[in-house]
Amino acid sequence: YPKLSRMALCYLTIPLTSVGVERLFSKGHILITHLRNGLSAASIWAILCLNDWAQKGYVKDKDVLAVT
């Protein structure tokens, strides 16, 4: 299960550079607006991971849309 192992690494690891962190803050700023400020930290993390996995082709867009 190579895709699953890559997804686990993405989810469980801490970024080693500030570039990844800056990118997350940028995406988080778009995601966490005054309209969506009721989302939990776990929900925000899940959305960011799903977005990253969809961009890398680990999951299909239609599957992401089905759970959001």
From TrEMBL:
Chain ranges of the HAT C-terminal dimerisation domain: 1-53
GO MF annotations in UniProt: protein dimerization activity
Top-level division of the source organism's lineage: Eukaryota
Protein known as: HAT C-terminal dimerisation domain-containing protein
Native source organism of the sequence: Fomitopsis schrenkii
